[in-house]
Amino acid sequence: PACHITSAAAAALTPAGHHAEHHLILLRFLSPSTHQALNSQLVYLSIPDDVREKGRDFKIITEVIQDGKQFTWSQIYPQKTMTNKFIIDQESDMETMAGKKFKATVTMDGGKITAKFPNYLHTAEVQGDKLIEISTASGAKGTATMKRISKRI
């Protein structure tokens, strides 16, 4: 998964007279506990039942570090941290929550970052003090979409 700091958010974090692309930007967001849509999506992604049960009621901290076109995207769970690093418009090695490794090219269009790979599409965008993520997974059982809105901390 990925995130983009909008121009307004970057400007708010950048000292006057400096350009955001020359500074490291760190944003942290806290998501609400998981819900049914996420559970359905995890079924489609073949996440084992025991892993889904453990994650049903905890909150996730998403940490986004941007340095120009380079991003480090971390999701911090109670017992694990998952981190993917990527450069916009370059193929990058990534890993799913289930530990499956894949390659994807993350793109940015109009303030929104998109990561697309077989059977999965993830978009992320910062709007004010919120991180809005939309994930769609498809498989033999159908398609599930999850929208998660996390608040900045």
TrEMBL record:
Entry's Gene Ontology molecular function annotations: lipid binding
InterPro entries attached to this UniProt entry: Calycin, ILBP
Annotated signal peptide: none
Family of the protein in this entry: Belongs to the calycin superfamily. Fatty-acid binding protein (FABP) family.
Identification of the protein by name: Fatty acid binding protein 6, ileal (gastrotropin)
Source organism of this protein record: Erpetoichthys calabaricus
